[in-house]
Backbone:
């Protein structure tokens, strides 16, 4: 069943739970539609039980998601740099760290 808060959205067709909803769209159009649906969900949520306005929640969640991506890719970058250094011969030599 479609909630009345999302029926007027230009991005909701009534087939949101259908496995075929993105079947004929390009990847770029699919990605845009998923983003639009997420934004629509945030903005139509409204204020409930004294929670912050949906725009505030959207902004905070968007910032948190972007920061998570920065952190994740930073760790992946560090791992890739370590691998490159090892390939180039810049590896620690455990024997040099041992006390005689």
Residues:
């Amino acid at each position: 069943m479609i909630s009345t808060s999302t029926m007027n959205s230009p991005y909701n067709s009534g087939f949101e739970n259908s496995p075929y909803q993105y079947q004929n769209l390009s990847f770029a159009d699919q990605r845009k539609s998923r983003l639009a649906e997420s934004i629509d969900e945030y903005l139509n949520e409204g204020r409930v039980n004294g929670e912050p306005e949906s725009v505030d929640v959207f902004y905070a969640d968007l910032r948190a998601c972007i920061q998570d991506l920065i952190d994740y890719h930073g760790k992946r970058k560090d791992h890739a740099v370590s691998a490159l250094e090892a390939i180039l011969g810049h590896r620690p030599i455990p024997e040099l760290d041992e006390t005689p």
